[in-house]
Amino acid sequence: MEAPPLSSSGVASHLRSPLLPRLSNTGGTWNPRKPCSKSKKHLSIRASSQDSTVTLLDYGAGNVRSVRNAIRYLGFDIKDVQKPEDILSANRLVFPGVGAFAAAMEVLNQNGMADALCMYIEKDRPFLGICLGLQLLFESSEENGPVKGLGLIPGVVGRFDSSSGLRVPHIGWNTVQITKDSGILDDIEGQHVYFVHSYRVLPSDANKDWISSTCNYGESFISSITRGNIHAVQFHPEKSGDVGLSILRKFLNTSSSKTKKLACGKASKLAKRVISCLDVRTNDKGDLVVTKGDQYDVREHRDGDEVRNLGKPVELAGQYYKDGADEVSFLNITGFRDFPLGDLPMLQVLRCTSENVFVPLTVGGGIRDFTDGSGRHYSSLEVASEYFRSGADKISIGSDAVLTAEEYLRTGVKTGKSSLEQISRVYGNQAVVVSIDPRRMYVRSPDDVEFKTVKVTTPGPFGEEYAWYQCTVSGGREGRPIGAYELAKAVEELGAGEILLNCIDCDGQGQGFDIDLIKLISEAVTIPVIASSGAGAVEHFSEVFKKTSASAALAAGIFHRKEKPWWNWLADGQVCWKIFVLLHAL
């Protein structure tokens, strides 16, 4: 998870100070490290090891809450590193590196923790690095560099080469090839684990003795290293479901004989992702509920005009995780009206969900600069930071990205001040999704408009053979003078790492994705595209992946309503995610 470097003051003041204690109006101070009490029934038995404490090196960037929750879920306590001596005295040290290589090294060097970390590892003490926690072990990184790393392992961290059409960042569930016994990776060959990164280290003669597994994404790169008690992985075990929990359990409690045996895996490559989306808002009674729109209209007009209530967000997210969802996405669909950091229930949904859902969580809605009623200004970066600290792995930007792209296309200038640019600079572009909400606009000829058109599969109401896709803002209420194609190209240049491509015309119709639109956009950009809107049958998922270059498909209503034939595929009444088996084989 990488981003351009920050100044030292930016790292210290912004990334290390949670916002919510200043915002809470609940009469007490929120503790970001305290779990939701309602979730304790899901915790496993306490660790049987004599010392059940794990030392966590959290230097203050990104979503480390997921690692905390996974460790607690497995029955261990956590001690946070406050000073270099805490590293040297640790019995087990976990370093979940998140953010920019240069920014991380800056913090570690300033606080004297780089030297302590090197001493700890050189003494062969139990260590697990995650993602950037692996990359920092190498000599240097080309990311906004060169930037010197800890220099413990030979090798240079470089960016994936996208010149041949490879989509960067590498986001999704991929497999690893075990090259030597590491203990913690037992049974995971043939299983999918979750990656999200733009930079990687290549195997070489100089570092081959460290490598315990590799992964293929356009080329073979190092996915894990092992030497003695030292382990590090490029993927995210805390976001890899049961497979990831098994890895963490083996590292934390190597003497345990209770490690769950994983089923034999048959996966061999990057999977197409299926994402469950939960549109969240308050109903007319003030309760936070999951709802679903019909062309963005969420009210049941035949039933008192009430907001559709399809369930409670935390419970539904937990169920979809158990059923096999690759990711879960929350969209606060009234976020554009309200001050999101005042939306304590939505933040609490993230915190509680992340305690028992160990796949990636995305949240969107209202992420932009705000001024509250007292005149206090909050930047979009502060808003996003609180979402990350509450359990989000990615944030989704909608309306604000449209306005930013319009200004960029008009002036040709990247100001660096937009929410998209600020957040991707600090947290990396893989943490930023841009949500595009277009409406199909038919024309008789491509020459009729200044925007990119596509020849449509189904002609328009007056026989039009072409269409352009007009972008909208404010939940589809306002059309803007920019097309989906132009917007997608612009936000990629501004720092987006992924595009969530909706279609107002298809929303809630259950007739399939807009293949014309998805093909247009997925072929126009080099970042992953998530297809959304219109899924009504399993065939719609296979169709969108066979006919377009989409990396993932997202759906909502078809999962929430448990419609036939999706429901009761299993005798016990659970959703049988047949689509996951089907699509992961593509």
UniProtKB/TrEMBL annotation:
Residues 1-42 are annotated as: Disordered. GO terms for biological process: L-histidine biosynthetic process. Pathway: Amino-acid biosynthesis; L-histidine biosynthesis; L-histidine from 5-phospho-alpha-D-ribose 1-diphosphate: step 5/9. Residues 398-399, 435-437, 507-508, 533-534, 556-557 are annotated as: PRFAR binding. One of its GO terms (molecular function) is lyase activity. Residues 56-251 form the Glutamine amidotransferase domain. Its EC number is 3.5.1.2. SUPFAM superfamilies: Class I glutamine amidotransferase-like (SSF52317), Ribulose-phoshate binding barrel (SSF51366). It is an enzyme of class 3 (hydrolase). Pfam families: GATase, His_biosynth. IGPS catalyzes the conversion of PRFAR and glutamine to IGP, AICAR and glutamate. The glutaminase domain produces the ammonia necessary for the cyclase domain to produce IGP and AICAR from PRFAR. The ammonia is channeled to the active site of the cyclase domain. This is Imidazole glycerol phosphate synthase hisHF.
